[in-house]
Structure to design on (164 residues):
């Protein structure tokens, strides 16, 4: 490396005042490290709902509810899974209603969903990831409700894994 220590240029200037030229030699010599993640294997996982957003499917343009689920146990903690509820048929709407019910969200009409998306955030779920060919599917099995109603899943999970 050319420079082991860089000058401190953190003086509250804007982006236009940042001169990156001092890093050019080190950047050119730096090796790129590949950080490919191994695929998450099929199985059951405990997850936290991080995002639930209404969007459109890229290929069809149909409306869908896109779930972002962060694994909290038992393996692959911190990794993400996704579930998409595309709304195109009665069967799709039935699956969506079942998923919402699993999360404890009961709606009178589907048009009430946008105003209630926030209620899905930070819900803990048990899910099953299943791969068929190139398609990965995530199914919501059940909601995980803690006895104290708090958000102390780590403690509950550790207690559950304590040997007898």
């Amino acid at each position: 490396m050319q420079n082991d220590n860089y000058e401190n240029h953190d003086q509250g200037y804007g982006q236009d005042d940042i001169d990156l030229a001092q890093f050019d030699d080190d950047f050119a010599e730096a090796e790129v490290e590949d950080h490919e993640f191994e695929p998450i294997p099929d199985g059951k996982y405990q997850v936290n709902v991080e995002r639930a957003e209404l969007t459109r499917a890229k290929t069809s343009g149909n409306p869908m509810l896109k779930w972002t689920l962060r694994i909290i146990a038992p393996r692959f903690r911190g990794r993400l899974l996704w579930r998409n509820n595309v709304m195109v048929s009665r069967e799709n709407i039935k699956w969506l209603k079942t998923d919402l019910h699993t999360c404890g969200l009961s709606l009178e009409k589907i048009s009430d969903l946008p105003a209630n998306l926030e209620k899905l955030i930070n819900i803990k779920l048990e899910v099953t990831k299943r791969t068929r060919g190139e398609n990965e599917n995530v199914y919501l099995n059940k909601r995980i409700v803690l006895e104290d109603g708090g958000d102390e899943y780590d403690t509950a999970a550790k207690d559950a894994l304590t040997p007898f």
Observations:
- The helical segments are 24-29, 90-102, 153-161.
- The CA atoms of residues 148 and 156 lie 10 Å apart.
